[in-house]
Amino acid sequence: MFTIFGKFVLFLQSMLVRRERVAVLWQRTVDEAILIGVDSVFIVAIVSAFIGAVTCVQIAYNLTNPLIPKATIGYMVREMTILELAPTITCIVLAGKVGSSIAGGLGTMRITEQVSALEVMGINSTSYLVFPRMLAAILMFPLLVILAMVLSILGGYLAGTLTGAMAPQDFIEGIREDFVPYNIVFALIKSVVFAFLIAGISSFKGFNTTGGALEVGAASTGAVTNSIIAILIADFVLAAVLL
Amino acid sequence: MIEVSNIQKSFDGNPVLKGIDCTFETGKCNLLLGGSGTGKSVLLQCIVGLMKPDIGSITFDGTVYTNNKVAIRQEIRRKIGMLFQGSALFDSMTVAQNVEFPLQMLTPEMSNEERRDRVEFCLKRVGLENAGPKMPAEISGGMKKRVGIARAIAPQCTYLFCDEPNSGLDPATSIKIDNLIHEITHEYDITTVIVTHDMNSVIEIGEHIIFLHQGKKLWDGTKDEILNVEVPELKEFIFSSSLVRAAKRVDDEGGLAAITDEHGANI
Hints:
By secondary structure, chain A is mostly helical. Chain A has helices spanning 2-16, 22-36, 41-62, 71-111, 114-120, 125-162, 168-176, 182-207, 213-242.
């Protein structure tokens, strides 16, 4: 366990020494941002909108007490979305999509000697392949989480009003009630930490793949599993430290 | 010239290279010959820096490579071109982008036009002037090898390493690849090291051959000398092929001999 952690730290360190030119890294980061960010918009939009909708309907189903105002539903949807559902669930989904893609891509490059080809050319392969992926993930995840927050609350609004669970003005009143801006900052901090964990763990697993196609599959699976576990642990630690 | 001195390498206590000393000469096709598992590829990887030898040193034209400063090793690496066994072309790039890649990374001072000209020249040199826009998945194994050679020579390398350049190719294409490597070696006066176990390559382009057996260098010489060696392991390796046995008899008797099996019977 400690050996693996040590190797992971050395792996991250190797990405920062003998870096490639800034222009090259920036171009690679933009390319990766498209793959990691833009290509994930659809899945994030679908997941977040439905999670918001389901959250709203289920809260409405449980809040049957006439003494509790309907606006509470909107309030709870907002709090749950911003604090937990948008950052954590979105990043768990992204661990599956982006994490497996990073590990599979790097694993394939490793077993087909493309990584060796870079190294023989005198290029720092971790700097060229991993650094832009990590930077792109750190830049794009907060944007995807913001999108998830908006769509999740919108999903909740539509579900609540279209099913007749509550009036539109009740929901609006609820989501404006006792708003704490720090919660947004907290969610964005979580997204940056999760991005680092997903991109770092997946790159590490992919980069250290040995063998053949079977091992690439195993590396992808390992990357997703380990990323999700790391997200859940980090989620708890961040909540305990920052809230 | 590349000088290898007392290179030793072991994995989990199993020695793979047991003190190899050899020299790879400039302007020649130097062949690392040997059966599977004799340490040829490991030695090649130690020379290009993909593996670190346990003991020993490697010198490129007088500059020590092993255990030297990162900047010096980086400088030497930038003079190295390598053709990998599976070609190792970047899947996400076209053929032209693959050839252009080392130029983009290693020679940022080149203008786009100069780079394009160089890519065109290299692709033309390997006979693939029309393959530039294609993706690696759209071309044959032989074409991939030629693209690999074009990519290796694009930054005007001083040392060319080829790891089993004929693996997976038919005999006719293998000879074409061998001849292309041979021509390029002489044209640009580079030090070429080829890992192979293909006797056709030995006969075709073996100007300097180093035979490895169980992690040791047992013999080195030229293709003209190899058929008459008295090293039992090398004889066994060479004459395991009926075709080579027949060629040897043709050579000895000055006529076409029957192809025989290991007991001397006609096949």
